[in-house]
Amino acid sequence: MIIDSFLNKYTRRLFQNKNNHPFYQVLLWRLWRVWTRLNYKKKSRHYLPELSERGVSILGNSNVTDLARSVATLFADIPIQNGFCSLPREKNSIVAPLIYRVVQEHKAKIESHFRSNFRVNWFEVQKLVESSQTAGGSFLYHTDDVPDDVFKLFIYLTDCTEQTGAFRTFDYNVTNQLIKAGMMESSNPGQPRVDAQKLVSTDLEKSLIVIEGEKGTVFMFDNNLIHKGTLPRRGQRIHVSMELMPDVKPQNFSQFSKNCALPIKEYFPSNPFRA
Ligand SMILES: O=C(O)CCC(=O)C(=O)O
Ligand SMILES: [Fe+2]
């Protein structure tokens, strides 16, 4: 325990990691970064300063007419609880080809960010509707506490504004400030997350980045930033959320869709070499 916390502190000095993971895990992920970059022969074509400087950036817009229509039909008979529902995972295979196509459209930018190939570990399709219920979980400020090279990619399937529940996050600066003040506790859903909310003042909330965008907006963010979901004050929000990580080879469609209908086994692989 003592050795663990000593190594943890040391790890943070050495690796400047943004998560709260044990030494060996941070080390493995750093080695994975080096390994995937060594295996990447292409020159980066894009420069995404927003993504490296603040941790969140819109990659562009895709035509999602067919995808949005198909998702809306699939959601038709899914009950909403507390303003929120996910597409049952067994239905994911139906929309997987259309989602894969969108990812491919933004592939060059994603590769430029990672400076390697990448893969999608899992995706989820979610719907939020106007609701007066107070919801917990990801509707409170939190960090996902993931390896530094794990990022999320969102595809909006409806027009999203601040009012209709657009994604919101603090940038790296404010996140660091909050983590120093004890916000790492928000990685534990339940009471610790609830308690951590007091660290976010209304004044600090003025610096929130709200990702508004039309239907088809694709954006990427570091989910170690302090962020939250928000139930719409009016209307609804439908989006696809997915987890990205660097990989040695490009991911083909069969790898992308292989487990998409099964429950998510692990939020992220603890050992990327065995994933
Ligand atoms: O739905 C959102 O806007 C954010 C949800 C969230 O916390 C996440 O995907 O990690
Ligand atoms: Fe989150």
Give a written overview of the molecule:
- The protein has 275 residues and is an alpha+beta fold.
- It has a single domain (50-263), classed as Jelly Rolls (Sandwich), CATH 2.60.120.
- It is built from 10 helices and 9 strands.
- The protein has helices at residues 2-15, 23-38, 49-53, 65-75, 92-105, 107-114, 172-180, 191-196, 202-205, 253-257, and strands at residues 56-61, 84-86, 117-129, 151-156, 167-169, 209-211, 217-222, 227-228, 236-247.
- The strands form 2 sheets. The chain has a 6-stranded antiparallel β-sheet. Strands 6-5-8 form a 3-stranded antiparallel β-sheet, with no helix packed on it.
- Helix 1 runs parallel beside helix 2 (23-38) and helix 4 packs antiparallel against helix 5 (92-105).
- The two termini are 27 Å apart.
- The model has no long low-confidence stretch (mean pLDDT 94).
- 2-oxoglutaric acid (AKG) binds next to loops.
